[in-house]
Amino acid sequence: MDKLKTGIGIEDCSGCGACQSVCPQKCVSFEKDQYGFNKPKFSDKCVDCGLCARSCPQNAANLSRLEFKRPEGVYSAVSKSAEILAESSSGGAFSEIAKVFCDDETVIFGAAFDGDFSVKIDCVEGLNNIAPLRKSKYVQPEPNIAHARAKEFLKKGRRVLYAGTPCQIAALRLVLGGDNPNLLTLDFSCHGFGSPMVFRRYIEEKQREFSKKIVGFSFREKARRGFNYSVTSTAFLFEDGSRVVNFKDILYKGFVRAFFKCDACSKCPYARGERISDITMADFWGIEFMDSSLQAGKGVSLVLANTKKGMEIVEKLKDSMSIKEREFSPSVKKNTPLISPVKASPFRERFFESIKTDTVENSIRKLLPPKTLKSHILRIFYLLPVRMQIAMTKFVRGLARRK
Ligand SMILES: Cc1cc2nc3c(=O)[nH]c(=O)nc-3n(C[C@H](O)[C@H](O)[C@H](O)COP(=O)(O)OP(=O)(O)OC[C@H]3O[C@@H](n4cnc5c(N)ncnc54)[C@H](O)[C@@H]3O)c2cc1C
Hints:
Bound molecules: flavin-adenine dinucleotide
């Protein structure tokens, strides 16, 4: 297959937009591929200067120019603010880190929904405007020149907090050509992007089903059944102000099974224990079994402090978050993307073939494995109070040891 000007195959592009940020000829635009992912297109104004190839985080030749760091500190962290916990996907690390790093002048980059349910990398000034950037949107953002904008702010001496996927942070480092004392970077454990086209079609299907306009969507709903259930629970907000929580959202199931995952993410060079940001955030899956004294029900962040800057920030989090130091290996055991990339489903092609003639919902349902006795037992298990789950796990482990 032909290579892009960035030196990679088109299937390896994650759509971070770094090439567009650095192009002096402004010859890079993006168009959707057949799966709905953003892929770059280079106009004939291109003069082959090679800047885009040197800024592309997916170009293997650039990996040696990035500094990968083994985390210096590993922590569980839970915000002490009930409001922040409720508005965050995990334990609220993103908002609490922003609180200690930012003042009213700091520029904060993150992902926000646009009016039409596309996702964009946006920036806001000051903490008071951070709300749209909160919470995970499991969709590929529409590429823009966010990296170039961050570079401009830093050039002017502004402080910048930049949160994004590992590939977006790697792109920023390549665009900047190194670190900057006014910059703090946050990435997260990343399963990979879902297709924006699939997400938009799902929203349209749900609008037809409910016969009302959807004006807001939350990929992670933990208010009613807690953190562990937030990985299958979503919430729709309608124009008339009503809200519907979907405890077993089918889109989420398809996302977790990687039916409509970005092809590049299956080979992500950043899904590993060595990190390229100052701080890595993640969901702390399994923490309730490691430490039953922790109140895990509303969400717990796994925080990896990867640099001296990151360690200094974590030190300052101790007032606003309940923080405890942890061991690396047991903490990442249930968090695959901190070990290796999550592969796309073998049913990916069948899924995209199916949505040509059927709904997104039906196409996911058709490909889900049939329910087994084990899956029924697990479903009931996760409905039990956490204390009972822990007691039962200890009991079963005890039985297994005796055998
Ligand atoms: C596509 C994707 C896949 C993920 N996969 C995993 C995983 O497999 N395991 C895991 O433990 N955690 C994963 N996460 C991270 C996790 O869901 C939480 O976002 C993270 O733990 C931070 O939560 P929080 O409570 O600190 O704050 P939150 O307020 O929830 O912070 C969310 C942060 O993510 C940024 N963000 C949201 N959507 C996007 C996007 N599409 N592109 C770039 N940045 C975005 C926001 O700007 C914000 O900085 C994923 C996130 C995304 C967006």
